[in-house]
């Protein structure tokens, strides 16, 4: 699977470029000043299945953290992965080297380790080298289609954004499931000291800092 975070989206009556069918004129703010918003920003975290051409979008609020990134993998597996890959011997995750799922984020490794224990499946993470994020499949297989789903529309709530993202499809058969997170993710949470001192993560002999 390929994972990444898309840029945050403001929730509120903000004008977005594009066209959409309406039954009348729409009134919206032409500037996205924070004072105009509901103080709520959506964080779309994507998990893309490169084999099945299916995607899971975990729509969260708060901070983009390693906990969020690990939870997205867990929710993807329960919603989509386990039915298709029952009995699989391991999961391969392709991720950028920075951000909430970066190779320097102990919290991500700790929470992903918990997910692996919960699922009973080994999880292997391969981070792309710096400045190579454009080679991450999710960027040009999923994220390029999400802005089109909300173009020309007023996104007044998270549930409305969830519905729009769930309708994304392509001629090649892309299918998207979008789920709202049940918690608000807080910044500043760190991995436990015991985990950092006795980290069970195994490093590859080749490019061990990334794999």
UniProtKB/TrEMBL annotation:
Domain of life the protein comes from: Bacteria
InterPro entries given in the database record: Transposase_36
The protein's name in its UniProt record: Transposase
Organism expressing this protein natively: Aporhodopirellula rubra
């Amino acid at each position: 699977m390929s994972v990444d975070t898309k840029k945050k989206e403001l929730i509120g009556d903000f004008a977005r470029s594009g066209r959409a069918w309406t039954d009348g004129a729409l009134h919206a703010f032409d500037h996205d000043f924070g004072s105009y918003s509901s103080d709520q920003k959506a964080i779309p975290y994507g998990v893309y299945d490169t084999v099945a051409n299916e995607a899971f979008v975990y729509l969260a609020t708060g901070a983009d953290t390693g906990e969020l990134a690990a939870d997205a993998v867990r929710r993807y597996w329960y919603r989509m992965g386990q039915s298709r890959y029952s009995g699989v011997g391991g999961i391969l995750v392709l991720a950028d080297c920075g951000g909430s799922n970066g190779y320097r984020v102990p919290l991500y490794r700790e929470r992903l380790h918990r997910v692996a224990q919960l699922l009973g499946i080994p999880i292997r993470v391969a981070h792309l080298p710096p400045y190579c994020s454009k080679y991450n499949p999710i960027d040009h297989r999923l994220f390029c289609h999400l802005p089109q789903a909300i173009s020309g529309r007023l996104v007044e709530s998270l549930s409305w954004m969830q519905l729009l993202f769930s309708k994304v499809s392509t001629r090649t058969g892309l299918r998207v499931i979008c789920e709202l997170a049940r918690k608000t993710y807080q910044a500043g949470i760190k991995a436990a000291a015991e985990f950092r001192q006795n980290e069970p993560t195994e490093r590859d002999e080749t490019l061990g800092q990334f794999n």
